[in-house]
Sequence to fold (190 residues):
Amino acid sequence: MSHSSTLISTLELRVTPSMDVIQEIEPDVREVLLVGESFFMELPEPDLRDQVDAATAEYIAEQVLPLAPDERRRALDELLRPVVAQAVEACRRADRVGQRSVEAQRRLLRAQTDGGCWMAPLEESADALMSEAAELLILAHQRCQEAHGVSRAVGLAHRDKAWTPYSAAETTDWLVAAGEADQARRAAAM
Fold:
């Protein structure tokens, strides 16, 4: 069993769905792109996270911000909770079917090596599980991107910050400045 599978199995028993859980179990985008290309599957829009972020921010501005503070906090939490739960469940399903697909491929390989059995049903089963695993992996990626988008908009609203579109350049500038400040702090401490 892979590290990811072990982590997901453990999480199923112990952890409430959260963005931290999503960050631990979400599919690697490189794997998603490879699977999508290999199976000729349509992938979610590359800017899906940003689209969901913007749409959620608009909804929050119109429907949630006018509410009283306590009601606003509850509404924001309720906005995020189901999206996160769907993303975690999509990752769990993708992992379970992925494991079944790997096992079906192993059975097929053993049967091909050992011989003496009818291959067609094993091949059909392995192919069907592989296709289903690919579809579920892409769906899990999509659900995680949606959760990240909703989470950003909800997080800004929780902190009473004005929503602005995500900017990779601004994030990079902030990270560089933080790194330089840390280096300066360390140099001064020497």
In short: The mean pLDDT is 91. The first helix runs from residue 3 to 14. Residues 177 and 183 are 10 Å apart (CA to CA).
